[in-house]
Design brief:
The chain is α+β, with helices and mostly antiparallel strands and 186 residues long. The chain has a domain of 86 residues: Beta-lactamase Inhibitory Protein, Chain:B, domain 1. Strands 1, 2, 3, 4 and 5 form a 5-stranded antiparallel beta sheet that branches. Strand 3 and strand 4 form a beta hairpin. The protein starts with 10 loop residues before the first helix and ends in a 31-residue tail after the last helix.
Length: 186
């Protein structure tokens, strides 16, 4: 019998073991199809909230006044998300919030300048800070808080604490009248 030089002598036994292992694995998975589907439906991936851009509140927009300088606008609204090289007289503020199982929120605000002074503001209706915070917490289902009271029968399962003995405590020593010097004197 002629064997190829690259095949080890035990290749036939290994190949048989690999085939049997694969066949056993497929058979086991086929038998557990219902269990696997239930397990897969119980395990869900963590979906992260994606926040991009600058949140601008109604209060911030109301604080803007025509004639403000660029630095004053930046102090109120923050650094703009987009500043165009071709349109140096406008700043774009875009805010996007994507959360699982909730429609994405997108808001845009454009600030226009004329001679480096605020000219006008255009954009979507911005929510107040309180409205925005309320919209964030409304998505989460309020879990039922269990009662934090125990009945007498439940408390009997635990050993009773022994009262602290009224043994006199050792008196604390009085502070020294004088302390040694911190540095040696020469």
């Amino acid at each position: 019998m002629h064997r190829p030089m690259f095949a080890p002598a035990c290749w036939g036994a290994r190949r048989g073991a690999i085939v049997l292992s694969a066949l056993g694995l497929c058979t086991g998975l086929a038998g557990c199809a219902g269990t696997g589907e239930r397990l897969a439906s119980m395990v869900t991936p963590y979906k992260v909230d994606v926040v991009q851009g600058n949140f601008i509140s109604r209060e911030q927009v109301q604080a803007l006044q025509p004639g403000m300088g660029r630095q004053q606008v930046r102090e109120i609204l923050g650094t703009p998300l987009m500043v165009s090289l071709f349109h140096g007289d406008r700043w774009e503020y875009v805010f996007t919030l994507k959360r699982p199982d909730v429609p994405a929120q997108t808001r845009k605000l454009t600030v226009f300048f004329k001679d480096n002074m605020l000219d006008r503001v255009e954009g979507d209706e911005m929510p107040s800070e309180a409205e925005f915070v309320a919209s964030l917490s409304s998505r989460r289902a309020q879990a039922k808080v269990p009662p934090l009271e125990a009945t007498e029968a439940q408390l009997e399962r635990f050993p009773k604490a022994k009262p602290a003995s009224a043994a006199p405590a050792a008196p604390t020593p009085a502070p020294a009248a004088s302390y040694p010097p911190l540095e040696s004197r020469r």
